[in-house]
């Protein structure tokens, strides 16, 4: 049975244009009513689904945006995802700890813009995410926030930050 299935599979593959010609064919083709694509981009970010969708207005640099974010927001987090839907465990942990203090939390999703991700890394000289800034100071990532929470240092750092009006 397995041999029959294997032979059928190989026979189907041999009907494909690239398999018959012995060369790599780039483009798309139909087989048994299904559309297939043989185009593989050199850069995985070239497909429109993976392109950044929030470009910065001309005249404003990403460095300026990061500086403004940090300056104007008492608690700023650059993370994977957004506070209501973190897309990594470290970002989720940082958000959970910060929400414990009921402070207004501003955030940017670094997954939406690779250039922003690099600008934040350059600004903080820190390689990993999330990156948390409190009252203009770079604090660190989720491990540092958690450690500060456990020692009581985070409560002291956030004491001047007004409590969020939004109840959770």
From TrEMBL:
Stored Pfam families: Glutaredoxin
Top-rank lineage group of the source organism: Eukaryota
MF (Gene Ontology): 2 iron, 2 sulfur cluster binding; metal ion binding
CDD domains per UniProt: GRX_PICOT_like
Signal peptide range: none
Matching SUPFAM superfamilies: Thioredoxin-like (SSF52833)
UniProt domain Glutaredoxin: residue ranges: 75-139
Keywords associated with the record: 2Fe-2S, Iron, Iron-sulfur, Metal-binding, Redox-active center
Cellular component, GO annotation: mitochondrial matrix
Gene3D superfamilies: Glutaredoxin (3.40.30.10)
Transmembrane parts of this sequence: none
Family to which this protein belongs: Belongs to the glutaredoxin family. CGFS subfamily.
Listed name of the protein: Glutaredoxin domain-containing protein
């Amino acid at each position: 049975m397995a041999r029959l299935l294997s032979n059928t599979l190989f026979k189907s593959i041999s009907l494909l244009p690239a398999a018959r010609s012995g060369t790599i064919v780039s483009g798309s083709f139909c087989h048994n009513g299904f559309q297939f694509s043989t185009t593989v981009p050199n850069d995985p970010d070239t497909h429109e689904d993976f392109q950044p969708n929030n470009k910065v207005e001309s005249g404003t640099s990403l460095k300026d945006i990061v500086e403004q974010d940090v300056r104007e927001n008492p608690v700023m987090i650059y993370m994977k995802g957004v506070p209501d839907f973190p897309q990594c465990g470290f970002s989720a942990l940082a958000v959970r700890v910060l929400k414990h203090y009921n402070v207004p939390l501003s955030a940017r999703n670094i997954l939406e813009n690779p250039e922003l991700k690099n600008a934040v890394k350059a600004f903080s000289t820190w390689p990993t995410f999330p990156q948390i800034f409190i009252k203009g100071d770079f604090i660190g990532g989720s491990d540092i926030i958690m450690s500060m929470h456990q020692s009581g240092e985070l409560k002291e750092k956030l004491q001047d930050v007004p409590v969020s009006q939004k109840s959770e």
